[in-house]
Specification:
The chain is α+β, with helices and mostly antiparallel strands. It has a single domain, classed as Alpha-Beta Plaits. Helices cover 37% and strands 20% of the residues. It has 3 helices and 3 strands. The relative contact order is 0.31.
């Protein structure tokens, strides 16, 4: 993903969705890596159970042009992983 920047890896689906919602609310597009494999084979993104480590952490990506704004927003909400 050459034109995208990894803003964080999350071990909790709840934290990932908080970050994703914050960024998208500010007009920043996002992409979540491992979202579907965790939903199918993990405990579910919004469950209280840990994610399945066999599929890796949930990774949140933003376009490269939004890197600084995304990092600032996540840090302001305490969501910097």
């Amino acid at each position: 993903m050459r034109e995208w920047y990894l803003v964080g890896s999350f071990a909790s689906g709840f934290e990932l969705w908080r970050a994703k919602t914050l960024l998208e609310g500010a007009g920043i597009p996002t992409y979540v890596q491992n979202e579907h494999s965790q939903s199918i084979w993990g405990a579910g993104l919004l469950s209280s159970f840990p994610l399945n480590p066999a599929f890796g952490p949930l990774r949140l990506w933003v376009p490269l042009w939004a890197k600084t704004q995304a990092q600032t927003l996540l840090a302001s909400e305490g969501l910097s992983p």
